[in-house]
What does this fold into?
Amino acid sequence: MLQGRRILLVIGGGIAAYKSLDLIRRLRERGATVRPILTESAQEFITPLSAAALCGEPAHTDLFDRNLETEIGHIRLARDADAIVVAPATANLMARMAGGHADDLATTVLLATTLPILIAPAMNVRMWQHPATQRNLAALTRDGVMVIGPNEGAMAEAEWGPGRLAEPLEIVAAVEGLLARPPSPQGGEEQVLAGRRVLVTSGPTHEPIDPVRYIANRSSGRQGHAIAAAAAAAGAEVTLVSGPVSVPDPAGVRVVRVETAREMLAAVEAALPADIAIFAAAVADWRAAGEAEQKLKKDGGEPPPLRLALNPDILATVARRGEGRPPLVVGFAAETERVVEHAKAKLARKGCDLIVANDVSPATGIMGGADNAVHLVMKDGVESWPSLDKEEVARRLVNRLARMRPQTP
Ligand SMILES: Cc1cc2nc3c(=O)[nH]c(=O)nc-3n(C[C@H](O)[C@H](O)[C@H](O)COP(=O)(O)O)c2cc1C
It folds into this structure.
């Protein structure tokens, strides 16, 4: 996928700068050309000469480079590439990017560009968790910057936690995601899922309390329906099992309508086998224990007690199936705090292959809204996407999933 693609690699001044040399090698092995920019601090860790030798290109370090500036070199660097990768992205670089600074070659290029940008942060765990860094991260994601990692692990200072640079191959996969091909020249989507069976769940479930009342949640079904539409546009044979929603049915998709979690599980089981199962529905964890047969009456006394019973766990049921388990099982995690941490725990608990996690606290406007900012949590790393409209999240997810499995199951 990277054959002939041009990557501008900004190397920040962190202890992980040496890993950027391996990243250069991995990108070039896949046919990309890599042009390096080193910050002044990066040159304390690795030399421009090693980066240049591995890239087979001169390394750029100075904003006021006499040779480059004859052609307004920083503008040319900002334009003549397919994507910019910042690895390692130091806390300082992230702050300068988020603040719109342009006080050296790296930040000037990053400000002067319209290219897609991927950053791979690496720093001490406390620097990463500092509210200032997290604020900068949020600002960068809002600006459309894609983030890979950092990973959890032992740090150089004998500490443990998130802060390690993502592995070079994870960064390569993220670059491929960033450069995922746009729609084909004919105007249609590329048929990356041709011949594959895809099952998608979407929307909320309604759990009746009595014949007129029910327990529900704020899911609109927009994200799940967009995924079903994107999978169909990518050539898949799609079954969409949908809870009660007001969004229209996607074109070219078989839609099965259900109301409760138990009905959804039955419809999912009936729709298997599938090559890919994507559980985007916000299934109620609980239902009312013992639905009243008649409408509960307000007769002036105490309110009736609402006892809850546990609903079936659809994602875990399918992910833990022996025979007939879809080769790729994807769950969604809607969280209101510690989103990635909770999603990692969910990935392990449910036995699925990937969790698409998002922050649904009311301030984000994600639940029921038009946009979504997701983290792809996998066994070997986390990919954080910028805020995108739900259709674009769906298209990118479909492309990403298509690359996670061989074309012929
Ligand atoms: C030994 C050493 C290791 C460092 N490692 C990191 C690091 O991993 N991540 C980070 O954000 N800053 C790290 N720093 C601090 C940065 O080098 C410093 O913030 C610098 O100004 C970053 O410059 P740049 O963002 O222009 O590359 C380290 C500093 C030293 C002395």
Q: What stands out?
A: DSSP finds 14 helices and 21 strands in the chain. Residues 193 and 236 are 5 Å apart (CA to CA). The domain at 6-178 is CATH 3.40.50.1950 (Rossmann fold).
